[in-house]
Amino acid sequence: MKHKGFVLWLTGLSGSGKSTLANKIYKELKMNGTKIEKLDGDVVRENLTKDLGFSPEDRNENIRRIGFVSNLLSKNGVIVLASFISPYTLQREGLREGVENYIEVFVNAPLEVCEKRDVKGLYKKARAGKISFFTGITDPYETPDNPDVEVRTDKLSENECVDQIIKYLKEKEFISF
């Protein structure tokens, strides 16, 4: 498979389906012979940004560090799947400016749908005041104005969303298979 390095950045509320879609895309691209890495919020927080909390300042630093690592990988021909809430417009604008071959995917699902999918009980805790700075409840999620791709996980199946993203990557000649 021929491909160039790029960063596919999946942004959306907790429970919107970012990690699920990243896992499916990873499997499909890996199966077709790509050099690919997946960066996910929980894993990165445990290993790369353990020193950061969830204040707006710490969230910005978290995304900045992940963007730096993603850019290094993509410059070396690696496809990077990054699934992070990335709630602020300025964060995503900084990524678009500082990361070569940055592709923003807005994984869109209404808050009420995300709350129903909440397997970790985070939304309940946030509504009960037990979690500060929780995106969508006590901290804003600034909806992307102009993402490269928008998938509606409340209206489309996981496979339909993945197909929509893969189609975009082929059309823009990031991948060919």
What does this structure look like?
The chain has 177 residues and is an alpha/beta fold. It has seven helices and seven strands. The protein has one domain (2-176): P-loop containing nucleotide triphosphate hydrolases (Rossmann fold, 3-Layer(aba) Sandwich). Helices cover 44% and strands 18% of the residues. The strands form two sheets. Strands 3-4-2-5-6 form a five-stranded parallel beta sheet, with helices on both faces. A two-stranded antiparallel sheet has the order 1-7. α1 packs across α7. The longest helix is centred in the middle third of the chain and has 20 residues, at 56-75. It is globular. The termini are close together. The model has no long low-confidence stretch (mean pLDDT 93).
Overview features:
about 180 residues, about 45% helix, alpha/beta, 7 strands, Rossmann fold, single chain, 7 helices
Structure described in brief:
With 177 residues, the protein is of the alpha/beta class. Helix content is 44%, strand content 18%. The strands form two sheets. The protein has a five-stranded parallel sheet with strand order 3-4-2-5-6, with helices on both faces. A two-stranded antiparallel ribbon has the order 1-7.
